[in-house]
Amino acid sequence: xxxxxxxxxxxxxxxxxxxxxxxxxxxxxxxxxxxxxxxxxxxxxxxxxxxxxxxxxxxxxxxxxxxxxxxxxxxxxxxxxxxxxxxxxxxxxxxxxxxxxxxxxxxxxxxxxxxxxxxxxxxxxxxxxxxxxxxxxxxxxxxxxxxxxxxxxxxxxxxxxxxxxxxxxxxxxxxxxxxxxxxxxxxxxxxxxxxxxxxxxxxxxxxxxxxxxxxxxxxxxxxxxxxxxxxxxxxxxxxxxxxxxxxxxxxxxxxxxxxxxxxxxxxxxxxxxxxxxxxxxxxxxxxxxxxxxxxxxxxxxxxxxxxxxxxxxxxxxxxxxxxxxxxxxxxxxxxxxxxxxxxxxxxxxxxxxxxxxxxxxxxxxxxxxxxxxxxxxxxxxx
Length: 382
What we know:
Layout: E1 6-8, E2 13-16, H1 24-30, E3 37-39, H2 42-45, H3 48-59, E4 66-67, H4 76-89, E5 94-98, H5 100-112, E6 140-144, E7 156-161, E8 166-171, E9 179-182, H6 192-211, H7 217-239, H8 244-260, H9 267-279, H10 283-313, H11 318-332, H12 349-358, H13 371-381
Parallel strand pairs: 2-9, 3-4, 3-5, 5-6, 6-9
Antiparallel strand pairs: 1-2, 7-8
Helix pairs in contact: 4-5, 6-7, 6-8, 6-10, 7-8, 9-10, 9-12, 10-11, 10-13, 12-13
């Protein structure tokens, strides 16, 4: 199969295929941007793919302004620094360029540039998003350089509260980018551990959406195919970084995971969010670490469903075969064996348990999470 190129209108305008980054300035102009701020992370800021994007903006008469003070788990201090740069530069929109951290922080800058309320008042709870003045949200163009979070097709961003070390999901419908450019060529330079972690993040999104008890058949179907793509193409992308077909299929799987988790997330994310907030671990890698333990935890509720998924993925052995394949993937991708190997301390498990139970992902888990069983789940993951 050759590397696919396509234009999609679902869930937003997506321009998919190799070399599509060359259209960046045109899409910015079509969205009404004349002086965009490109938001990326510190590591990406100095790389050739970022220079290429800035060259394209500059050639289109849009300048080459950059903000790159983005931490791996961005917080409100990163956001405030970005807002100062945005306002001082008189910018009129944001190009979110990078992995999940840069995409999420760029969205927060676009959201908060002219709001009069704190960002925490827009947490994804009920209809809190209606508190924002939607007319004051700046246009967003998204350019992912990893294949995992799916933030490029999402209506939310994750922001860590630096005082409480708690991750909060900030939601508004207008955080859905006006245009997303998915160019697999931008992902070939990812370090191997980022390819692994972001890929397993996409798998976790699909797996938890598929396992969620809520009724959303459209997301269910997308989640199933997303798991198949990751299972087939992530090992290829990891083994041969320049395999453009595998990179393209992983970009598709990442977007699919983010669309699918409208159906819900679960214990994988409610455990990994506090671990990432407290210890600064890579989100997708943390998801992969706790995944088999969560599968065991949820087995009574999902065994039959995962047996059907195993059949579709070409895995023999039903639930046990599916779990075995997860363990194989972890081994192939160099994922740490447990949370202890990631630096998590047993003395903080009570604190992490409380944070996990506050995480909104709990509500989508097929087995109800309590203080007792969540603490036991953390212990199993150590």
